[in-house]
Design brief:
It contains 13 helices and eight strands. It is α/β, with parallel strands linked by helices and 264 residues long.
């Protein structure tokens, strides 16, 4: 599956260069019983964190599909002369997948409080949701981390939604994929399920298209998101500027083609 997706490299990440509908078709074609693979949706915060902590890179490199989650990053890249991949927000992907699932389709969810899960079931009509909500800090507790991994292995589903925040969800997904016992597709989608449950209100479409969804979310939860959006994420500008400068340099003498093949 992974080799079928066209790839565009940005900030040292091989992103699938596919619109949402093509991503949905690609996932739907994958057999439910296929070995577990996972999808990551890096946004500006993730990309800045990756640049600062290269030890996290395997979490993204090992994913079968990487989708750019930020219209702002794509726009900034374009302004700097860089070719950006198609933008597929994790929230859009999650909503589309949930809408397409039949009521009796088994689904596994990692994260969400029990009350939020009930609202998710009521709004989506899904009747077979296997649910595990790890405690805070579970990724630092080997027994709790193992419990999350094992739950996915013991509750195979075409789609497993990992909603425990980054990089915790990517670490769980990578562990499941590495052990080779799981089945289906794991989707590392952060807070996307909260939009479907009504726990959080997503920005209106006009705000999304204006690339101001980050500002909307900041206004909704300034205490939690102020540092992310006002301190950490702006570093993406420097990273893109650096990449644009590198791209403008002539290729090394020993590499006249200066072309590489990358796979998602």
């Amino acid at each position: 599956m992974a080799s079928e997706a066209p790839v565009r490299r940005l900030l040292d990440v091989d992103f699938a260069d596919l619109p949402l509908q093509d991503v949905l078709a690609l996932l739907a074609e994958r057999p439910a019983e296929a070995p577990f693979g996972y999808v990551v949706t890096p946004n500006s915060d993730h990309l800045v964190r990756l640049a600062r902590d290269p030890a996290m890179r395997p979490l993204y490199d090992d994913a079968m599909l990487r989708l750019l989650d930020s219209r702002v990053v794509a726009r900034l890249a374009g302004l700097m002369g860089l070719a950006a991949p198609a933008v597929v927000p994790g929230s859009d992907l999650t909503a589309a997948l949930m809408q397409a699932l039949p009521p009796d389709e088994p689904v596994t969810v990692i994260g969400l409080a029990p009350a939020a899960l009930k609202r998710l079931a009521a709004r989506t009509g899904l009747r077979r949701i296997a649910h595990h909500n790890p405690p805070m800090g579970f990724d630092r507790d080997p027994a709790q981390f193992e419990a999350a991994v094992r739950f996915i292995e013991e509750n195979p589903a075409r789609y497993t939604f990992l909603a425990v925040g980054s990089p915790r969800q990517e670490r769980v997904a990578q562990a499941v994929a590495t052990r080779g016992k799981g089945r289906g597709v794991g989707l590392c989608i952060g807070a996307s399920l909260l939009f479907l449950t009504g726990e959080e209100r997503r920005a209106p479409v006009i705000v999304q298209r204006a690339e101001l969804e980050w500002a909307w979310r900041l206004m909704q939860d300034p205490k939690r998101l102020a540092r992310r959006y006002l301190v950490d994420s702006p570093a993406i500008i420097a990273l893109l500027r650096r990449e644009a400068k590198r791209a403008a340099l002539p290729p090394p003498a020993d590499d006249p083609g200066h072309q590489h093949q990358h796979r998602a």
